[in-house]
């Protein structure tokens, strides 16, 4: 191995001739500095002995960042990550941390995995047992309770029995029997979820309750993925959980991430474009998941009051400070409709929404007053 050219406290040379050339250069530089000092005594010292070499970058100079894109199938959907990093190694490290966090949360929130924390909790329903839960599960249930209260139950994570019934109806393309729907509705009531914040426990008071966090947990996962990437030093990142999007710092040299608002027709171009940074946006609707039964178009979003999917063509886009708020409120407003949805958005801090409905007579839009301020103008 070659010896280093420099060691602490000394300068080393590979030959005597190199040492002599260096000594001559130092002497000439000293004479040049002395001459300058005689005519300009106030010359900055840092510039006096500056050899004609490339100056090093300033300590706070921005790094050159490259765009990277990643995708993985997690939580029953595709999660996409776009980030800017100084190297491929840094990008891979941040993306893997983000995906690893989402995988871990799937073991908390999934209603498909029989041994997830959520499903273990559901098996205690009606037992009188207050179950200690993870901080993640408690945080989601606590926020869900707030939205349930604000929407008078239009948003309700205890909707699981009705969701399962509706999944079967969508596959068979037949409406569930009224008796089955009524039996499932009796198991749905967010007020029967007892939370103890001090002890961080959850008790399900009604036997047969089944929780479904599909309308809020994806937003939480997007935020958690961004936090995981930040832990690896990457802040310019966007996470998309199939329509639930959370954004960190914007791309280099830009004011925000450009997000296309999904149109009513899935094959169509974005209806509008948003600018997003350090915030979240979520779109709920029937563009990709719907079923037509007896001439009526139903969404996959279940209304807890009726036990059926929301009828009609609609798309709701919500801007909010975090993923849970955007995810849950988009679901809630899609169920409530434009007018009640407007009141919900107005009562929520820093929340804007766009509600688009389609019918034979055309397309109608309702939006909150501040929504347009986030739009990119063509």
Summarize the structure.
The chain is an alpha+beta fold and 378 residues long. The protein has a single domain, classed as T-fold (Roll).
What features would you describe in this structure?
The protein has 10 helices and 18 strands. With 378 residues, the chain is α+β, with helices and mostly antiparallel strands. The protein has one domain (66-374): Roll (T-fold), CATH 3.10.520. It has an 8-stranded antiparallel β-sheet, covered by helices on one side. The chain has a 3-stranded antiparallel β-sheet with strand order 5-7-6, covered by helices on one side. Strands 13-14-15 form a 3-stranded antiparallel β-sheet. Helix 3 (88-109) packs antiparallel against helix 8 (217-230), helix 5 runs parallel beside helix 9 (323-336) and helix 9 (323-336) packs antiparallel against helix 10 (338-346). The radius of gyration is 29 Å and the shape is globular. The termini are far apart.
Q: Key features?
A:
eight-stranded antiparallel sheet; alpha+beta; disordered N terminus; single chain; 10 helices; globular; 34% helix; 378 residues; 18 strands; three-stranded antiparallel sheet; T-fold
Q: Could you give the order of strands across the largest sheet?
A: 3-4-8-9-12-16-17-18
Query: What series of H and E elements makes up the topology?
Result: EEHHEEHHEHHHEEHEEEEEEEEEHHEE
The fold-level CATH name is T-fold
Beta fraction of the residues? 15-25%
Shape: globular
Task: Indicate the radius of gyration in whole angstroms.
Answer: 29 Å
CATH class: Alpha Beta
Termini distance? 60 Å
Fourth-tier CATH superfamily name: ApbE-like domains
Show unreliable segments.
Answer: 1-59
Number of helices: 10
């Amino acid at each position: 191995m070659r010896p280093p050219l420099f060691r602490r406290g000394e300068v080393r040379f590979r030959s005597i001739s190199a040492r002599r050339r260096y000594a001559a250069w130092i002497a000439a530089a000293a004479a040049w500095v002395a001459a300058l000092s005689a005519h300009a005594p106030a010359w900055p010292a840092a510039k006096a002995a500056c050899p004609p070499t490339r100056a090093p970058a300033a300590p706070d100079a921005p790094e050159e960042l490259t765009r990277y894109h990643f995708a993985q199938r997690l939580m029953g959907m595709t999660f996409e990550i776009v980030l800017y990093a100084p190297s491929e190694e840094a990008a891979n490290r941040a993306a893997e941390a983000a995906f690893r966090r989402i995988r871990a949360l799937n073991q908390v929130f999934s209603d498909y995995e029989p041994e997830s924390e959520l499903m273990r909790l559901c098996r205690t329903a009606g037992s009188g047992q207050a179950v200690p839960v993870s901080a993640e599960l408690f945080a989601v249930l606590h926020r869900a309770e707030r939205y349930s209260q604000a929407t008078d139950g239009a948003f309700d994570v205890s909707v699981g029995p009705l969701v399962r019934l509706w999944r079967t109806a969508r596959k068979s393309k037949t409406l569930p029997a009224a008796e089955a729907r009524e039996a499932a509705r009796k198991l749905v009531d967010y007020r029967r979820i007892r939370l103890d914040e001090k002890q961080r426990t959850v008790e399900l008071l009604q036997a047969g309750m089944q929780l479904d966090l599909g309308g809020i947990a994806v937003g939480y996962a997007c935020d958690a993925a961004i936090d995981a990437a930040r832990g690896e030093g990457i802040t310019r990142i966007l996470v998309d959980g199939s329509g639930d999007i959370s954004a960190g710092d914007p791309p280099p040299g830009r004011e925000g991430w450009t997000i296309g608002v999904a149109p009513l027709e899935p094959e169509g171009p974005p209806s509008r474009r948003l600018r997003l940074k350090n915030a979240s946006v979520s779109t709920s609707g029937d563009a990709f998941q719907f079923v037509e039964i007896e001439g009526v178009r139903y969404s996959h979003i279940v209304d807890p009051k009726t036990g059926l999917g929301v009828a009609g063509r609609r798309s709701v886009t919500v801007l909010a400070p975090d993923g849970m708020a955007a995810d849950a409120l988009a679901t809630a407003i899609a169920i409530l409709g434009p007018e009640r949805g407007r009141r919900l958005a107005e009562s929520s801090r820093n929340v804007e929404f766009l509600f688009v409905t389609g019918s034979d007579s055309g397309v109608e839009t309702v939006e909150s007053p501040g929504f347009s301020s986030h739009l990119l103008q063509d």
